[in-house]
Amino acid sequence: MFKENQVKLAIAPIGWTNDDMPDLGGDVTFEQCISEMALAGFTGSEVGNKYPRDTAVLKKALHLRGLEIASAWFSAFLTSKPFEETAEAFMRHRDFLHEMGAKVIVVSEQGNSIQGQMSTPLFEEKPVFTEEEWSLFLDGLERLGDLAAEKGMKVVYHHHMGTGVQTTEEIAKLMEGTDPAKVSLLYDTGHLVFSGEDHLEVLTKYMDRIHHVHLKDVRADVAEKVKENKMSFLSGVKEGVFTVPGDGQIDFKPVFELLSEAGYEGWFVVEAEQDPAVANPFEYAGKARQYIREMSGL
Questions:
Q1: What is the catalytic activity of this protein (predicted)?
Q2: Backbone phi and psi for residue 62, each to the nearest 5 degrees, phi listed first
Q3: How far apart are CA 12 and CA 216, in angstroms?
Q4: Which of 142, 199, 243, 281 could pair covalently with 15 via S-S, beta carbons 3.0-4.6 A apart?
Q5: Is the confidence at residue 23, as pLDDT, over 90?
Q6: Are the CB atoms for 223 and 243 separated by under 8 Å?
Q7: Distance (Å, rounded) from C-alpha 199 to C-alpha 207?
Q8: What is d(CA 276, CA 293) in angstroms, rounded to the nearest whole number?
């Protein structure tokens, strides 16, 4: 389905230790995490909070296990703080990723985000940008895109539950309001399905803008429970709303077929934050790797 070297497979460390809830996987070491990634058959990783920021140290640890850095999350505050604050932090992040050989920078707007709030109902209190906030956001994102381009890199925007860019309509406003040369899209199956969007429609519509892919599955019964009980995003994660591809409700075969037909090049990143005490991360990494092999031939 995919040509040789067209797509590389990574897995995010958030299944081993959670950045938003450090108590989940708090006892898991960086070395255990990346060793199990490699043993499960992955060749890349995104960056977690236990990863060393000394690039020489990080490169050596990854090289020993045949791993690369695909990208890393960056929290922007374009709607709630002066642009200069976000730009300064972004350039440090950009330079770190550039040194690690990454080509894309994952950006998500965290101004007014509720994704990190343990008790705020996810669907009832999702932030909605005002027109002024949209203007600040779109302009600032393009400026971050210019800063990324200075290093030959791309900004890939991560639509995300509990933020101002979650729904199909919000993604459309983002795509229509930004220059394709400056802002690309990170396509995340799990966040679209959890939100109630048509993930294949979004994929088809913005295929030429997609330069990074997160493969995340959703447990339909838990997603329904989150909505019915007005739970928060983090509570949903602890309950197990997300899982690895092949373990939830999403059929990934058409996702892989569409990306293959379009000639997508870059990373596929398995990202399924769960409680590692409940869902053993090494076991689930292996499940994901086997499923991807069966569905895509990778």
A1: scyllo-inosose = 3D-3,5/4-trihydroxycyclohexane-1,2-dione + H2O
A2: -70, -40
A3: 10
A4: 281
A5: no
A6: no
A7: 12
A8: 23
| Statement: residue 111 has pLDDT above 90 | yes
HEC assignment per residue over the chain: CCCCCCEEEEECHHHCCCCCCCCCCCCCCHHHHHHHHHHCCCCEEECCCCCCCCHHHHHHHHHCCCCEEEECEEEECCCCCCHHHHHHHHHHHHHHHHHCCCCEEEEEECCCCCCCCCCCCCCCCCCCCCHHHHHHHHHHHHHHHHHHHCCCCEEEEECCCCCCCCCHHHHHHHHHCCCCCCEEEEEEHHHHHHHCCCHHHHHHHCHHHEEEEEECEECHHHHHHHHHCCCCHHHHHHHCCEECCCCCCCCCHHHHHHHHHCCCCEEEEECCCCCCCCCCHHHHHHHHHHHHHHHHCC
Domain topology for 7-296: TIM Barrel (3.20.20)
The rounded distance, in Å, linking the Cα atoms of 289 and 281 is 12
pLDDT tens for 131-164 read 999 999 999 999 999 999 999 999 999 999 999 9
Residue keyed to tokens 């330079």? 95
Q: Beta strands 266-270 and 7-11: pairing type?
A: parallel
Residue 132 exposed, middle or buried by CB count within 10 Å (0-12, 13-18, 19+): exposed
Centroid of chain to Cα 220: 20
Please tell me the pTM assigned to this model. Answer: 0.97
